Fold each of these.
Amino acid sequence: MYAKSSSTSAPVTPSGKSKDTDRLVMEFEDNRLAAIIFGQHDQNLARIEERLDVVLINRGNRVAIEGGIEGARLAKRVLSDLYDLAQKGHEIDAGAVDGVIRMGENGDMTTAQTNQATMPNGKNKADLKITTRNRVIMPRSPGQADYVANLMDHEMVFGVGPAGTGKTYLAVAMAVSRMISGEIDRIILSRPAVEAGENLGFLPGDMKDKVDPYLRPLYDALYDMLPAEQVEKYLASGQIEVAPLAFMRGRTLANSFVILDEAQNTTMMQMKMFLTRFGDNSHMVICGDPSQVDLPRGTRSGLRHSLDILQGVEGIAVTRFHVQDVVRHALVGRIVDAYGDDGGR
C-alpha cells in the first residue's frame, strides 16, 4: 500500500509531565491517491489531527505523524485505510474520514487492515458493502457494520437507535441494491403520518400532496441511490411505492423489500398489521428511535412492544445503534448523548 513506514518513541516532559510519544513516517506509492486522501488544502489531514490529537506533516507523498503513542498509531492505520479506499475508487470526504476513525476508535478497522478478518457475525469486512447505481456504500461505524450484515442475512431486521445513525439510509440502499440485481421485484417504503408534536391543520391538495411531506426523507434517500430519471420511472410504474402506513392494511407483500420508517410512532395494532403483511421472497426492515415517540401521551409505541415480544424469534435480527454510531455532524452525536433516553416525556 505504501512504500515505507518507520517510527521512533521517546519520553517528553511538557509542563513537567512525562508522556510517551511516537513519530511515524508513511510514504505512499501513488502521489495522486495520496493527494486524494489528504484532501483539498489538506482538510482531511486537519480532521484527523483534530480527532486524534496528533500532528501530521506532509511533504509530497510522505506524511510524518507525531503524537501520543496510541493516537499516532491509530492515525497511521486511518491513513492506510483511507488509501485503500481511494485505491478502490471510493470518495474520500469528511464522512469517510470520520467513519474510518470511528471504526478504528472502536478497535474495528475496515478494509486496509482487515480485508479478510472475520467479524462476529461471520462476514468478511470487505463484503460489507452495498452497491447502488449512484454509489458504493460501506459501513461507517461498528453498529452500521452489524446492521449491514443483518440486512444481508435476515428476512426481517429491526434497526433501533438515535437519529443520524443511518438506519433508514442503509435500508433504502440495500433495497435498491436487491432490486437492481433482480432479487426482488419492487420496493415499498412506508411510515406513519404522525406530526412531530405539531398541529399542521388541513393540508391542501390531493392525497399524494397531503402525505408526501411525511415521506420526504424516504424520497431523499432514493434520489441519493439512483439517477433522478430512474426514480421517477420506478415511482410511475409502481416498482417503487412510497405510502403511509395506513395504506398497508389488507395487503400481502410478496417479492418485495418493505421498509417501515419512524416505527416508534406506530401503535401496537399498527405494528402487528404491518409485520403480518410479510409475503414470499420478501424482506422487511423496521427503523425507529424509541426516544422520539410522537404518539398521544399514554399510547404505547408499537416498536417498543414488538421488540419485547419478538425477542429470539427465528429469522428476525435486531441491531441497536448507540450514540457512537451517529454519522451526521459530530454535534448531533453530542446532542443525542446529552438527551440520553429522555425523549421529552
Note: The chain has twelve helices and twelve strands.
Amino acid sequence: MSKTRKPEHDLARAMPLAAIQERIIESLENNDDTGVADAVDLMISQGAYHTASDIHIEPWSDCLSLRYRIDGILQQIAVISQEYQPKITARLKVLADLVVYRKDVPQDGRIDSEKASCGRPMRISTVPTIRGEKIVIRLLGDSPDLYQLDTLGFQKHITSALRDIITRSQGTLLLTGPSSSGKTTTIYALLREMMKLQRNATNIVTIEDPVEYTIDKVAQIQVNPHVEFTFANALRSILRQDPEVIMVGEIRDVETAKMAVQAGLTGHFVISTIHSGTAAGVFTRLLDMGIEPFLVASSVSGVLAQRLLRLNCPDCARPYTPDPILFRHFGQEEEKGEFFRGKGCKACQGIGYRGRASVGELLPVNLEIAEYVLQRPTTAQLHRLAVSKGMKTLADDAMEKARKGITTIEELARVLPLSNA
C-alpha cells in the first residue's frame, strides 16, 4: 500500500480541545482592545494546530457556537456568549477584507498567510441567518507533502495507472466524489507530477472557483460569475492561448462538459471533476448531459472516484471485533483475523482517529470499455464490466485498509455508499 500522509497535528502548540473554550472566553472578557483579536487568533491557530479543515462559527438560539471539522467530522469546541458575536464577526471580516456593515448578503473573502496567526492562507464565507451571520473558514494546506501523489494514501496500482494516464499528450481525466473528498488535492498532486515529468516544457492553465492553492509556473484563473466569467467562458478563452494541459475545477453544465471533452480530443490533456457516486456513473452522467457517446468514448482516458477515510490513531489502536452486520453491508462474509480501532488518547484528543487517507476506484478506458460506452450502458452494467476486467472498487480498496488495521469497518460504513458493495 502507498505510504499515507502523516497528519500535521502540532502537539507542541495544540492545547486540549476541552481547554480552548476557557481560553477564548478569558480573552474576550479582557476589556482592552486586543481581547477580541486574541480570541479570534486563538480560534484560528488552534484549528490549524488540530488539523481542522474548516472552522464553523454559527449563531444558535442562545449562544455562538465554535466547531472544528477534524478529519471530516465536526467537533464542538466552544459555546460563547451572544454578546461577542458582532465583534468576532467584524474582526474576521476585517481580516478577510469584507464589507463589515453588510450583514444582509453572503460574502466570500480570503485571509492571506501573512495576516493569519497560524501562518496559513484561509478562505472565509459569511451567510446571513435568522440569528445573525454564520461564518465558515476553510484552512488551506501549505505542506509540500500535500501535493505528492505517493503520500495521498492511494494503492500503488492506482498511482501507477494515474502516472501512465497523465503522460499522454491528449485525453480527459475526470475525478469524482462528494465535497471534501480530496479531489482538489489529488489534482494538484497530478499537476505537480506532470511538471516534474515535463519540466518547464508544458503550458499548464487552470480554471478554478476559487483558487485554493497557488502553484509556481502554472497560469491559474479564478472564475467570476458576477461578470459572466464562467468556466465555459474561461475555457473558451484559454483554448486560444496554446495550452497543453488544462485543469477545469468542476464540470457544472453541458457547455463546459462539451468543451472539456472536445478539448481532450484536439491535442490537449484535460483534468476536471464531476459529481457522481462511482467511476462508472461519470460516463452515464456525461451521456445524460447530452454528450455524444463517441465523444465520451474517444476523449475520456480514465475516471477516478475517491473518498477520504479517517485513520486509526497509531498511539492508541487496539484489536477489536467488528459487528458482523457491517461486513454484510459491503456484501462480504464475516472475516476472521485481527481488526484494530483507536480507543482514544491524548494524541488524538480522545477521538480514536488521527489523519485521513484516500481510497480510490480507478476506471481506465481501454478499447473494450470505449466500445461499451458507445452502446449507452447503464451505470450498473458498466460497473460490472469494469470489475470483471479487474477494477478494484472503493469498497475493495477501503476493506483492504481495514484488514491491515489502518482504519475501521465502522469508518467504511460511514464514508462509502452501499451501492459500492
Note: Confidence is low (pLDDT under 50) at residues 1-8.
